């Protein structure tokens, strides 16, 4: 028997020994204190009672008002009516319901797509700062957009929120890399 054959024989014996040990330890639960003897009977002589295992709660999928019986489900018509009522309320006030600008106004004309007329209109609506625009949510955009008249849709189309984010942070290089020179 040469050295290579001896090596493979020893390796095979080690692997077989590991499998036997794994099988024995696996039957005992890994620690030898599983509360069972080798015949599958419970070991109550040491005061160990097997833990009761409860099945997980049944999850019943539900939708709409079934989640909370005190809440009525809203139809699409109900949601549309609520949105229309909010728009009418906002129109009656003359300005959109958005967070007010805090601090000195910024030059919003640096945002691509905002010229002098749109800058004046935004000022009349209470929009005056980059950080204010950068923080807008989809709901804020929906609130402001109807007030823009012929400029409606420009907020999203011209990426005002992203542009304002760069300008609010003072990241001129990032702004120019994405949107061109100021």
Structure description:
The chain is an all-alpha fold and 182 residues long. Among the domains are: 1-30; 108-179. Helices cover 47% and strands 0% of the residues. It contains eight helices and no strands. It has helices at 3-27, 76-93, 116-124, 130-134, 138-144, 154-157, 160-169, 172-179. Helix 7 (160-169) packs antiparallel against helix 8. 11% of the residues are buried.
Query: Helicity range of the residues?
Result: 40-55%
- Quote the average pLDDT: 80
What class do helices, strands and sheet pairing give?
mainly alpha
Strand tally: 0
Output the number of helix runs: 8
Largest sheet: none
Q: What layout of secondary structure does this protein have?
A:
Blueprint: H1 3-27, H2 76-93, H3 116-124, H4 130-134, H5 138-144, H6 154-157, H7 160-169, H8 172-179
Spell out the key features of this protein:
182 residues, mainly alpha, single chain, 8 helices, 47% helix, elongated
In short:
By secondary structure, this protein is an all-alpha fold. The protein contains 8 helices and no strands.
């Amino acid at each position: 028997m040469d050295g290579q054959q001896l090596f493979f024989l020893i390796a095979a014996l080690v692997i077989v020994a590991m499998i036997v040990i794994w099988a024995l330890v696996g039957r005992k639960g890994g620690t030898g204190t599983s509360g069972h003897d080798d015949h599958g009977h419970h070991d109550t002589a040491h005061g160990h009672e097997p833990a009761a295992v409860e099945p997980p709660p049944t999850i019943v999928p539900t939708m709409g008002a079934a989640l909370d019986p005190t809440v009525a489900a809203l139809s699409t018509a109900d949601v549309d009516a609520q949105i229309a009522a909010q728009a009418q309320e906002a129109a009656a006030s003359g300005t959109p319901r958005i967070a007010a600008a805090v601090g000195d106004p910024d030059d919003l004309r640096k945002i691509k797509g905002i010229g002098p007329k749109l800058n004046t209109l935004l000022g009349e609506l209470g929009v005056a700062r980059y950080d204010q625009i950068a923080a807008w949510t989809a709901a804020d955009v929906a609130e402001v957009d109807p007030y823009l008249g012929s400029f409606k849709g420009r907020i999203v189309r011209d990426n005002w929120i992203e542009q304002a984010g760069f300008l609010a942070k003072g990241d001129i290089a990032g702004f120019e890399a994405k949107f061109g020179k100021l």
